[in-house]
Amino acid sequence: MWYVAIKMLVGDRAKYLGMLIGVTFACLLITHQEAVFVGIMTRTYSVITDLALPDIWVMDPKVQFIDDSKPLRDTQLYQVRGVDGVEWAVPLYKGSLRARLADGNFQACSVLGIDDATLIGGPPEMLEGRLEDLRQEDAVIVDLAGAGGRLAKPPERPGEKPIPLKVGDVLELNDHRAVVVGVCRSSRSFQRK
């Protein structure tokens, strides 16, 4: 029985090669689609991996996904702090705002507000500046992709590359002055391309 099956499989070389190429191509497509899926999924939890310090995240029960901004009330924060076994609990703000660029255009930005006393929730890797510099007036830290991409200053001459933001540059965020005190590296999310 096995002999007949093997003869039918490899008896005609053209059919055998066609089947082999077809199965190989199907495996390639399956692997490719799996990689695309995993890449998309890593963008859904990038904020949580960048802010890896908390063991438990407490959110409003109505939150449907990570970018759904429904902040807890202060009374709920105190309730969390009152639970036995909770060492500390601090608020984390995640939202969006608009930045006015040097050329007058506007750009949507994601913003993370962290606890000012402990600086818990700060960026995972600082490339320029220090996390403690956030305590200065009007201070912000910009991620590397934003500093060199969407928030970069326009080039001095046409055809040149934009000038990346650096420590000391000034931005306008929601009609308020913001001074860049650091550049960090963070994971990609859905809002950041």
Task: Please tell me about this protein's structure.
- With 193 residues, the protein is of the alpha+beta class.
- 31% of the residues lie in helices and 21% in strands.
- The radius of gyration is 25 Å and the shape is flat.
- Strands 1, 2, 3, 4, 5 and 6 form a 6-stranded mixed beta sheet that branches.
- The termini are far apart.
- The mean pLDDT is 84.
- It folds into 2 domains: 2-44; 46-185, no CATH class.
- The chain has helices spanning 2-10, 13-44, 46-50, 74-81, 144-148; strands at residues 93-100, 106-113, 125-129, 139-143, 170-173, 176-185.
List the helices and strands and how they pair.
Blueprint: H1 2-10, H2 13-44, H3 46-50, H4 74-81, E1 93-100, E2 106-113, E3 125-129, E4 139-143, H5 144-148, E5 170-173, E6 176-185
Parallel strand pairs: 4-6
Antiparallel strand pairs: 1-2, 1-5, 3-6, 5-6
What is this structure, in a nutshell?
The chain has 193 residues and is α+β, with helices and mostly antiparallel strands.
Strand residue percentage: 15-25%
Class by alpha and beta content: alpha+beta
What is the CA-CA span between the terminal residues? 57 Å
Which stretches are low in confidence, meaning pLDDT under 50 for 5 or more residues running? Answer: none
Note the run of SSEs as H and E. Answer: HHHHEEEEHEE
Let me know the number of strands.
6
Helix content: 25-40%
